[in-house]
Amino acid sequence: MKTKFTNNSKNTLKIYGIKTCGSVKKAFKFFKEKEIEYEFIDFKVTPADAKQIESWLKKVDIDILFNNRGRKYRDLKLKDLNLDAKAKEIWLSKEYLLVKRPVIEFDDKVIVGFDEDKYNEIW
User: Fold this and answer.
1) Cα(33)–Cα(95) distance, rounded to whole angstroms?
2) Any bridge partners for residue 14, and if so which?
3) Cα 34 to Cα 32: distance, rounded to the nearest angstrom
4) Domain hosting residue 61, numbered range
5) Alpha-carbon radius of gyration of the chain
6) Are 119 and 36 in contact (CB under 8 A)?
7) Burial class of 72 by CB neighbour count within 10 A (0 to 12, 13 to 18, 19+)
8) pLDDT one-digit tens code per residue, 93-109
9) Is 122 strand, coil or helix?
């Protein structure tokens, strides 16, 4: 799904997540209010694969990308496994709900999660 807004940026940013996620909805609202164009990639339609996860991990730490506060993490009892970084990366490729949302790509950078103050500094 592509949402168009008028702005002066040459590079369209991408928002990865799921539509029903509260943090993703906040990001949509933020970018709409700022009239910033974005492309939305829904994990339910196009889950992040191992290559995508690896790409993000070159730009953000695994502990930022890996959502250890969500229901999926608890349901899978992953805390009991004491996962190392490689194991977390493997789980991220298997279970899109373990990716902290939203993941935002822009200008060869990656931001994870919704942080209005940080967003305002950048945009």
Assistant:
1) 31
2) 39, 105
3) 5
4) 2-122
5) 15
6) no
7) middle
8) 999 999 999 999 999 99
9) helix
d(CA 94, CA 118): 29
| Pair of tokens at residue 31 | 């970018």
CB atoms closer than 10 angstroms to residue 111: 20
DSSP 8-state code for residue 8: S
What is 63-115 written as a DSSP string?
HHHB--SSHHHHHTTGGGGT--HHHHHHHHHH-GGGB-S-EEEETTEEEES--
For residue range 43-89, what is the model confidence (pLDDT) as tens digits? Answer: 999 999 999 999 999 999 999 999 999 999 999 999 999 999 999 99
- The Cα–Cα gap between 56 and 58 comes to 5
We report the CATH number of the domain holding residue 60 as 3.40.30.10
Total structural domains in the chain?
1
Give the pTM: 0.87
